[in-house]
Amino acid sequence: MLVMRGIVKQFPGVRALDGVDLDVRAGEVHCLLGQNGAGKSTLIKVMAGVHQPDEGTVEFNGQRVRPSGPNDAIKLGFATIYQELDLVDGLSVTDNIFLGHEHARLGFVNRAAGNRAARQVLERLGHPEIRPTTEVGRLSPAAKQVVSMARALSHDARLIIMDEPSAALAHDEVANLFRIIRELTSQGVAVVYISHRLEEIREIGDRVTVLKDGRTVAVGLPARDTPTSQIVSLMTGRNVEYVFPPRPEAPAGGPPGEEVLRVEGLTSPGAFRDVSFAVRAGEIVGLAGLVGSGRSEILEAVYGARPSSGRVVLSGKQVRKSVVGNVRRGMGLAPEERKAQALLLDQSVTANITLGSLPGFAKFGWLDRTRERAEAERLAKALDIRPPDPERPVKTLSGGNQQKAVLARWLLGSRKLLLLDEPTRGVDVGARAELYAVIRDLADRGIGVLLVSSEVPEVLGLADRVLVLREGSVIHEGDARELDEHLVLDMIMNGRAA
Amino acid sequence: MSDPTKPRSDTGPPGIALPGRAGGNPLGRLTEAGHMGLLVAIALLVVVGLVTKPAAFATTSNLVSILSLAATIGVITVGATFVIIGGGIDLSVGAIMALASVWATTVATQEFGPVVMAICAILVGTGTGLVNGLLIAYGRLVPFIATLAMLVAARGLAQRMSDRKTQLIQPENSAIVELSTTRVLGVPLLVYIFALVVALGWVLLNRTTFGRRTYAVGGNPEAARLAGIDVRRHTMLLYALSGLCCGIAAVLIMARTTTGSSTHGDLYELDAIAAVIIGGTLLTGGRGTIIGSILGLLIFTLITNLFILNGLNTSDQLIAKGLIIVVAVLLQRRNLKERAP
Ligand SMILES: Nc1ncnc2c1ncn2[C@@H]1O[C@H](COP(=O)(O)OP(=O)(O)OP(=O)(O)O)[C@@H](O)[C@H]1O
Ligand SMILES: [Mg+2]
């Protein structure tokens, strides 16, 4: 149905695509795999008409096409869910879903019809609770993802392109997404699916195309029975073990490292209530729970970025709930939504990395830019940010590399407590193992880490202790080694405490 | 269908080529690209001047008068650049300048001599800017509205204080006037002050944490907040800085006109904002340069000069300026598009 041949796309200084072939058949789920920066997002932006290829051809149903803009692609029947959410925060859910093809007559928007149609799509997506009239800016990242999916579905598309749609979704939502994908493919719609989670590819994918450094290294692999080792070595060119770093040799119960954080009776109405726990120096504490269970909100409240009642004690001192003060006292938060909450897209990687510790680079307000650069370069290397040029504007990095820049910000300066919200969102398999090692290493150096992740194996593999959250309350707290994925899933879904 | 696992074996440069140098400064490539167009525009205007009025245009005295004209608004433009990069807008600059000039030239102030008069102007400017900043940062007023209110109120206060009369600088305080009459190397002192303010502004924006934070606060306030920057305090300081620039500008206009008056600086806000926009600073914040703004201002000043030299109608001059703003913004948008991902 869609055949792309020899696609080349050049950006200033980077050849993002260097001869990519792809063919997608009607009714299949075609997965694109590749490391961060391999060119997956660029490729789908070429399909979606956002970028024009420098070379190569695109055929759709046997006809040469050359979408010169997103509108052209939409007319051809391509709908795209971008990796970086592209919603207008100030508009309502309905307005976002139908942006560009509003229900209107003679230029007057017919609100009622729009809201009705929006409700239908949202229901189909299994989210009747999202009100069509809500302003999108007020929604959680996961709900925003649903809205962008609804937008893609509202187009009657014949080809739906999804760039890491599951990155912002929790377990049950992914199941929902897959149900919809199956529904679509059974009607002959083709889906191009990008994800760094191999188990998803196994579950939903039909065939796989692997990209590496802007080229196709394999096309049409069967998604279900190509061995993982083969896929990973195609992607990375080496053998990567998907492993978690070993926990420090410590007797169960842990050496009572000094308490870095103590939270008592923390409550934020509507998000979570009466949450108490502690994080010790050198310890990684994981928060597991569904989207909406209050995970991210707890991090924000501890950080002082969300109004809450209750006590937050950092290194024995009760803190006033202000971000500025908390950062000065040694907290750092890598937030969930990198684009909206963390990055200055127009600024360089360096400026983004040093933003959280500017005073450390300045004397009387005067910036030491040489040192700033050197530190950024060191971190870019440590986290394998590619391309390794810290002067590049962050927006020209691939999604996974942007994520690494967000983390890098808090590796600077002397931190006592790091709050990591989905730290590996969009990071590829190989780099993930490295990030885990970096996080463990931080803990070994005496930093307390509070980790939120939608991926239960990640929480279990990385954390020492796990808090399980459900509907805003902690329902279980225990050693990560005594839990398994199944048990945790059971708790977060059904609330059955072990 | 091709062999499923056959890797493409063409040789060629790897996907990740050598990154192009982006220039040392984080905004290097932007400033360079944006400034080229401005420099070309200035060159064109100079050519027009040379062709239409060769005798009058290319004289030192004309050059000096262009610079003196630019100096007052120029100082204001520096402050406005900070505010706009920081994601705000300051409509009250002209009014603040008028108020500062009136306050500094009242009979009571004049008794204390020229130094106190200058300090008074600067303090009044900074203080008024601070009020703007407090209203916007802590009172959560929209900048447009808060500074619009200030525009009206400050001018009203200036009229009240001066009783709508133009206040002359007394002969014993002529030291202030000497800023425009004393020349070093043929150039009046006030042009040096202008240059100094530009240089300090550039350093503040590009070499200090304050500048870096200004970009952060304007570019993504939420990210700035979560990175531990006190966004409100910074916003407040930006307006105070703008007020400070207005205070300095008040001293310059007092020097040039030998008066303080509630009518000084009428519509300066428009010229300053227009210069900033032409200079490539985004009205949405997070992006922009001081040099761009100053070049933008020079374009405006050159146009005024050319129209005066050629004895043309001031209405036509306004029309020309309006066209320039539109053209500049259109060009900018094309630039942005090319860079967008
Ligand atoms: N607008 C741009 N300007 C310059 N370079 C760009 C631009 N967009 C992408 N690139 C570069 O192109 C390469 C491919 O990026 P792309 O976003 O396609 O990667 P990806 O495979 O989607 O990675 P990820 O898994 O991290 O999302 C990267 O090296 C990136 O830095
Ligand atoms: Mg991507």
Automatic annotation (TrEMBL), chain A:
UniProt key word Repeat: yes
Record keywords, A-Z: ATP-binding, Nucleotide-binding, Repeat, Transport
Residue ranges of every copy of the ABC transporter domain listed in the record: 2-238, 255-496
GO molecular function: ATP binding
Protein name: Sugar ABC transporter ATP-binding protein
Organism encoding this protein: Nonomuraea harbinensis
Xref: SMART domains: AAA
InterPro entries named in the record: AAA+_ATPase, ABC_carbohydrate_import_ATPase, ABC_transporter-like_ATP-bd, ABC_transporter-like_CS
Residue stretches in coiled coil: none
Automatic annotation (TrEMBL), chain B:
Subcellular location: Cell membrane
Membrane association type: Multi-pass membrane protein
Organism per entry: Nonomuraea harbinensis
Chief place of localization: membrane
UniProt superkingdom: Bacteria
Cross-referenced Pfam families: BPD_transp_2 (PF02653)
Signal sequence range: none
InterPro entries associated with the record: ABC_transp_permease
Keyword match Hydrolase: no
Transmembrane region(s): 33-51, 63-85, 115-135, 141-158, 184-205, 236-255, 290-309
Stretches of the chain forming a coiled coil according to its record: none
Protein name (record): ABC transporter permease
Keywords: Cell membrane, Membrane, Transmembrane, Transmembrane helix
